[in-house]
Each structure stands twice: as structure tokens, then as C-alpha cells.
Specification:
Blueprint (H helix, E strand, L loop, with lengths): L6 E6 L26 H9 L5 E6 L3 H10 L3 E4 L7 H14 L4 E6 L7 H16 L4 E6 L2 E2 L3 E3 L1 H9 L6 H7 L4 E5 L12 H14 L7
Parallel strand pairs: 1-2, 1-4, 2-3, 5-8
Antiparallel strand pairs: 4-7, 5-6, 5-7
Length: about 220
Amino acid sequence: MSTPPRLCAVILAAGESSRMGRDKALLPWPPNNSAGQTMLSAAIAALQPFVESVLVVAGANAESLAPVVAACGASLAINPAPERGQFSSLQVGLRAALDRGCHAAMITPVDCPPLSAASLRALHAAFAQALERGQWAVAPVNNGKRGHPLLAGRELIQAFLRAPVTSNAREVRRACAQHIEYVPVPDPLLTADMNTPEQYAATAAQVFSSRPPTPDP
């Protein structure tokens, strides 16, 4: 059995969040929690147990994200031109991961609700098995819909980095489809959209409706 690759989490958080009207990375998550947890801190906490390090890719919002990143024990990578789009942030993050000696990455946009620990464990185990079979990556799927995080090995990382910055991750994944496996997970929020306040509110309602009732004292 080959040695597992060093794995780095790459959280893409450089977007302007223009449709939301506020930085999605700093939205409360879980919604209305009293501990001050945000989408960003929740993502870092969820991924940290499965990786050697966590990189957060920021843009013009780097100054506002830096305290959260530092408090959570993660590191910041700066996209100097985030207006080029999310794919440019992905390339910045992957290059930073390679610079750290990591040749595999657990990649997610910051506005994707974190999967459960059980689902992340299943993905992590499936990734190791997929690499043994010569595959390049795994990603979660729920009811036929695919989501994040994407666990990418060296070959897929290089495919992302070879693509022009004007490309996008979906195009690269489509070109490499035969090398990517999908792992069923039970998380209903896998494909939640949170681009607008209305979508965030709807997702928040779904979170509360899926929680088990609090037992009577």
C-alpha cells in the first residue's frame, strides 16, 4: 500500500458576496448560534481533523477574515485579483498547498454548509481507496446531486493548474470525469444555495427543521 498523500484543506472565500449584501464567510453558522461561529470558522473546524493544514483564500476581504483565520489555527492565502473569478482563487489555493508540500487537497467554497463529521470521514476513507485504484478524486453526492468538498489528488490538482484562469472547475472536472468517483452521503444541505439573503434564510429554516426536538426536562 502506498503512503497517503499529505492533504491540505483549501477554502475559497475571496468572493464579493454581492448578491448576499454581506460577506458570506462571516454569516452565522449554524444560523443564530450564540457562540459567534461563522460559515468560515465552521468550515475550518469541520475540515481540520482530516488534513494537515487549512488554507483560506481571501481577496479584498482578507483584513476582515484574518482574525477568524488566525483564531481557528488556519492560514491565509491572498488572491491578488479576485475579480478574475473563483477559479483564480482555486489556483491560488492549490499553488499555496503545493508550496506547503501537500499534493492532495480538500476543496470547498466557504458558502457550502459543512458536511457532518461522519460524511467527511466516509469521504476521507473513500479518497484513500480511490487513489489506490488509480483514481484522481472523490466528491459527495446526495439524491443524484453533487456537492463539496472535492478531495483532489495530484493529477487533478495539476489539471486545475494547467487550465487557463478563464476556465472553471466544472469544465476541468468534466474533462476528467472518468477519474472522479462520487460517494453517497446523507447530508440534505449538500447542494444548498446561499447566494442571497432569501436563500440563506431558507437554508437556515432547513437546518432548524432537520434538528431533533429538544427533550422535555
